[in-house]
Write a structure and sequence with these properties.
16% strand; 2 domains; alpha/beta
């Protein structure tokens, strides 16, 4: 049972105060893919994702630029990793932004606090997510926990209970009260509403991947070089929300200037977790296909669509 004095809460407090003793040195290059010379992208398989977006690129840029300007690295805490005995691997749970800032700065080795998935986090993903949110230090420039983050804890806890075969997988009243005590901006009523949903449906949403300018340009070039798209005008990737307005207007304006060009490729990516869920469900893709088919039949403009991965 999770309480305010439970083991992982105590560990989080020790880490934030700098008194936690279990530390190792990690090579950050083991947690990133080098997508271009000295351009790094987080490897999602090396993280425990706590938030509904893998990271805020604007936040990373802000802190990186501040440090480059001032030379002050005091904004950077040590990384926190979780050790998995069964697979003998370490995954980052605290410091996703810090690790990316460090590797951009050319800092490849970093001290890291170590917690054990089985011994310290009860072997449960929901506890790991809860622990990850506990690590946020309001005295540092970090992204504070949000209502969506707490909802992830609740839905993951329910999904785990379903998997364990519990007759009633919903959290107990004590569990909900303990959770609310640590996240007071979420009411017991709200937690109850999340729990009232069918526990066998839904669950924690996968985090939405953020795309850097380099990654988007690489994807653009990859699509342009596909055999199937010879003769097509491939438009640079854009957010999913643009599919109906600027996506269509870009195609039409290009066609007006180039009347012989009738084949186009539009590339879309999700800009938030809700859009990522829409792409996965297929509803928005069907809507886009129907609209673009109408353009082909009525205007003679053929639009193919490519979607960038969501996680």
């Amino acid at each position: 049972m999770k309480t305010q004095n439970t083991k992982f809460v105590a560990i989080a407090k020790q880490i934030k105060s700098g008194t936690y003793k279990r530390k190792i040195v990690i090579d950050l290059r083991d947690y990133f893919d080098e997508i271009a010379p000295d351009k790094w992208s987080p490897n999602p398989d090396t993280r425990i994702q706590v938030r509904d977006t893998d990271r805020s690129l604007a936040f990373v840029d802000e802190i990186y630029n501040t440090i480059k300007t001032t030379g002050d690295t005091s904004l950077l805490d040590d990384i926190v990793v979780v050790y998995f005995k069964k697979t003998d691997e370490y995954k980052i749970i605290g410091g996703n932004h810090t690790s990316e800032i460090k590797i951009r700065l050319g800092i490849y080795e970093s001290d890291a606090y170590v917690v054990d998935f089985e011994d310290d986090l009860e072997g449960r993903e929901s506890v790991a997510i809860d622990f990850g949110n506990e690590l946020n230090n309001p005295e540092k420039r970090v992204r504070p926990a949000t209502e969506s983050d707490v909802k992830n804890i609740v839905l993951t806890h329910i999904a785990e209970n379903v998997k364990m075969g519990l007759k009633d997988p919903r959290p107990t009243e004590e569990w909900k009260k303990n959770l609310q005590a640590r996240y007071p901006f979420v009411s017991i009523k709200t937690i109850g509403q999340w729990c009232s949903n069918d526990p066998n449906v839904g669950g924690r949403r996968s985090a939405k991947k953020s795309w850097t300018a380099v990654e988007k340009e690489q994807h653009h070039e990859s699509i342009k070089n596909k055999f199937d798209y010879q003769g097509y005008h491939v438009i640079a990737p854009r957010g999913l929300l643009s599919w109906y307005q600027t996506g269509i207007s870009t195609v039409v304006n290009h066609h007006l200037d180039n009347p012989l060009q009738k084949d186009y490729v539009l590339i879309f990516y999700a800009e938030n977790a809700a859009q990522a869920a829409e792409l996965v469900s297929g509803n928005i893709r069907a809507k886009i296909e129907e609209r673009y088919n109408r353009m082909r039949l009525q205007l003679g403009i053929n639009i193919k669509v490519e979607y960038m991965r969501t996680k």
